[in-house]
TrEMBL record:
<feature type="transmembrane region" description="Helical">
    <location>
        <begin position="309"/>
        <end position="332"/>
    </location>
</feature>
<feature type="transmembrane region" description="Helical">
    <location>
        <begin position="462"/>
        <end position="482"/>
    </location>
</feature>
<keyword id="KW-0812">Transmembrane</keyword>
<dbReference type="Pfam" id="PF00474">
    <property type="entry name" value="SSF"/>
</dbReference>
<comment type="similarity">
    <text>Belongs to the sodium:solute symporter (SSF) (TC 2.A.21) family.</text>
</comment>
<feature type="transmembrane region" description="Helical">
    <location>
        <begin position="416"/>
        <end position="442"/>
    </location>
</feature>
<feature type="transmembrane region" description="Helical">
    <location>
        <begin position="613"/>
        <end position="631"/>
    </location>
</feature>
<feature type="transmembrane region" description="Helical">
    <location>
        <begin position="177"/>
        <end position="200"/>
    </location>
</feature>
<feature type="transmembrane region" description="Helical">
    <location>
        <begin position="228"/>
        <end position="251"/>
    </location>
</feature>
<feature type="transmembrane region" description="Helical">
    <location>
        <begin position="128"/>
        <end position="145"/>
    </location>
</feature>
<feature type="transmembrane region" description="Helical">
    <location>
        <begin position="488"/>
        <end position="510"/>
    </location>
</feature>
<feature type="transmembrane region" description="Helical">
    <location>
        <begin position="258"/>
        <end position="276"/>
    </location>
</feature>
<feature type="transmembrane region" description="Helical">
    <location>
        <begin position="95"/>
        <end position="116"/>
    </location>
</feature>
<feature type="transmembrane region" description="Helical">
    <location>
        <begin position="555"/>
        <end position="575"/>
    </location>
</feature>
<keyword id="KW-0472">Membrane</keyword>
<protein>
    <submittedName>
        <fullName>Sodium/glucose cotransporter</fullName>
    </submittedName>
</protein>
<dbReference type="GO" id="GO:0005886">
    <property type="term" value="C:plasma membrane"/>
</dbReference>
Length: 673
């Protein structure tokens, strides 16, 4: 039975995205936002604000922006060579830059706030809403990364016409390119912009009086307009260096921005621990403020049956075993996709592609989380009213605790660095969304359907125009989405992806799948998503408020996935297969293994296919075990539970040795293929 707190986090269609809904704390309309007073929009602060920037802070911020713009000019000539340089760095990125660029993109301004909200509401275990994607990520590393690299595509949508044929393939490629570039990307930009607005509003602009000039120009709205001016300036700066430098500049800037962001978060976490006199004192305060069953705040595995249980076992298993392949969102596509594929395509070779994706997964799940989690726990300890408000009102966003810790603990110098931390996180996401979205418009729309004979000069010019179009669309989305509930938009986006993961993964390994399989899965998942809940309500399986004994959001996700799979499998058999020439060309290029390519393999006996699928999956499972051992190991080490930390470290070391042996065998097998 799913009820109470779990229903607030596990809202369809995404568990994680509900936490990113930072705009909701600001009202319902943009005009109302500009007219409201700053103090009326915020929860009562715990103390007087002290995040006033000094000369050294401004110097740090100025240096960061100067270096970022410098990167854009440095790579300007290289990006102008051709479209491959602009979008995939001439396929020459080393793994460590490509992987760091991936993880920097997923470190947006909203991510630390989301993790803070999850932790304040449910303790550390609340983060399983995104930790549960680790298995899917590792399968992408060891099974799909080399396949994507062999395909030679520049965008993941380009694979459609490499794998399928006919008008249905062209329709799928063009429509999905426009959908991702001009709908998904702007929504993501609008989403992270809302989070950046919150950070600015709660830190450097908190209670900062308006200047005479601002009062003269904007009158009573001066304080509310100021964050938008800063964000608009940031968007323009991203537009400058992103359009000038192409993927090389974006990736290098991402690497720098990730290092700066992590350094700032680690410094803030260290200050948070020092503020309480040590990790053990912080732990005690968190337990005190968490309420009944306070030690549950530190449980990595939630209590499934006790008095304080909030997550039923079947829900946890659905998160762990189903969500990673049944739910789609950018950065966690089943089998890889989106900007992850773009970075794979930009790597030097298959080996660099695998290592880049592996580094992304390790950094994503093992390197980044604990600085955020420590700050989140500090927010829970410093501001107990955040948890109380969260439990009392589902619309309250306790993620605001992260910037409040910044505001109340950071000294001069660190204030500038922490401001840079969020600008870096914000800008790395924007630059990737801009370049990635433009790649669809140019490669999959302009070059494919409008100007197939376009010269490299024309394509390069179109790439810069497309980058600006995506960025401007994101700016418009930021204004339209601000102060609005975005649940409906995200439900629509994920409805088009929920249940489609299976076809995205199996299209590499089953020759019979065709373009209609993907098209039907997309629209079928939307149809099932819209009809499952009314049917459940009519049958009494759930109540009007979304609770119920059987059908909760996670069960709904699973139900939609099962029905979608059944539909596209039926349609696959009812529609003509892809023509032999297209299948043969794909098979010869990608060399996928497995028994489901048998008819094609018989026509191409000289193709040396992969024979290591089982070994690759075993490696992925072992690597996932490393993640799930390192996560509690680092936490136990921070809080002085050395025996538990040693046990986790030992398990992680054993699994690391196993993965190293398996990777060596995989490399040897691939070299003989």
């Amino acid at each position: 039975m799913i009820q109470g707190d779990v229903s607030k986090i596990l809202k369809p269609p995404s568990l994680f995205l509900r936490r990113l809904k930072s705009a909701n704390v600001y009202g319902f309309r943009f005009v109302q936002l500009l007219r409201s007073s700053r103090r009326s929009r915020r929860f009562t602060p715990s103390q007087e604000p002290n995040m006033i920037l000094t000369a050294i802070d401004y110097a740090i911020i100025g240096a960061y922006f100067a270096i970022t713009i410098g990167i854009g000019f440095w790579f300007r000539n290289r990006a102008s060579k051709d479209i491959a340089e602009y979008f995939v760095s001439g396929r020459s990125l080393p793994w460590w830059i490509a992987g760091t660029s991936m993880v920097a993109t997923t470190f947006a301004a909203d991510t630390p706030l989301a993790v803070t909200g999850l932790t304040i509401q449910h303790g550390l275990a609340g983060n399983w809403v995104w930790w549960s994607f680790a298995l899917g990520g590792m399968i992408t590393v060891f099974v799909y990364a080399k396949l994507w690299r062999r395909s030679g595509v520049m965008t993941d949508v380009e694979l459609v016409e490499l794998r399928y044929s006919g008008k249905s393939a062209a329709l799928l490629r063009g429509s999905r390119a426009i959908y991702v570039a001009l709908i998904v990307n702007p929504i993501i930009i609008g989403w992270v912009t809302s989070a950046m607005f919150m950070v600015l509003d709660e830190t450097v602009l908190f209670e900062l009086p308006a200047s005479t000039l601002e009062q003269t120009v904007f009158g009573d709205n001066a304080l509310s307009v100021r964050p938008w001016l800063i964000i608009a300036g940031t968007l323009m700066m991203v537009g400058v260096y992103g359009t000038l430098s192409g993927m090389w500049g974006v990736a290098v800037a991402d690497a720098l921005q990730f290092c700066l962001a992590m350094f700032g978060c680690i410094a803030l976490a260290w200050l948070a621990i020092a503020h309480f006199g040590g990790a053990s004192q912080l732990e005690a305060k968190v337990i005190e403020n968490f309420g009944e069953g306070g030690t549950a705040a530190f449980d990595l595995i939630p209590d499934f049956t006790g008095a304080n249980a909030w997550l039923p076992l079947h829900v946890f298993l659905l998160l762990l075993l189903v969500q990673w392949w049944a739910t789609w969102y950018p950065g966690a596509e089943p089998g890889g996709g989106g900007f992850i594929v773009q970075r794979m395509a930009a790597c030097k070779d298959e080996r660099h592609s695998l290592l880049a994706t592996l580094w992304f997964q390790i950094a994503h799940y093992c390197v980044r989380p604990w600085p955020w989690l420590v700050v989140a726990l500090a927010a829970l300890a410093m501001y107990p009213e955040l948890r109380q408000s969260e439990l009392a009102d589902p619309a309250f966003n306790s993620g605001v605790g992260f910037p409040r810790v910044m505001r109340d603990l950071s000294p001069p110098g660190l204030r500038g660095l922490l401001t840079v931390t969020f600008f870096a996180a914000f800008m790395s996401t924007l630059s990737t969304q801009m370049n990635w979205g433009a790649s669809y418009l140019v490669r999959d729309v302009y070059q494919r359907f409008m100007r197939p004979d376009a010269t490299e000069k024309q394509l390069n010019r179109a790439s810069r125009y497309a980058s600006l179009i995506v960025l401007m669309a994101g700016g418009v989305a930021s204004v339209l989405m601000f102060g609005q509930s975005v649940d409906a938009a995200w439900r629509l986006l994920l409805a088009l992806g929920a249940g489609t993961g299976a076809v995205f993964m199996l299209r590499w390994f089953w020759w019979r799948i065709n373009a209609w399989s993907e098209i039907v899965s997309m629209f079928g998942s939307l149809l099932f998503f819209l009809t499952v809940e009314p049917i459940a309500l009519a049958s009494g399986l759930v109540s009007a408020d979304g609770g119920g004994p059987i059908l909760g959001p996670e069960v709904k996700m699973f139900s939609v996935a099962v029905m979608t799979i059944a539909l596209w499998v039926i349609v696959t058999w009812l529609t003509p297969p892809v023509d032999d020439a297209t299948l043969d060309r794909f098979f010869q290029m990608v060399r996928p293994g497995g028994p489901f390519w048998k008819p094609v393999a018989e026509r191409n006996p000289n193709v040396k296919v992969d024979t290591d699928i089982g070994l690759s999956i075993l490696t992925a499972l072992s690597a996932t075990g490393i993640v799930y051992a390192v996560l509690p190991g680092i936490g136990n080490l921070i809080f002085g539970h050395y025996q538990a930390a040693a046990l986790c470290g030992g398990i992680a070391a054993i699994l690391t040795a196993i993965v190293a042996v398996l990777v060596k065998r995989l490399t040897r097998v691939d070299s003989h293929s």
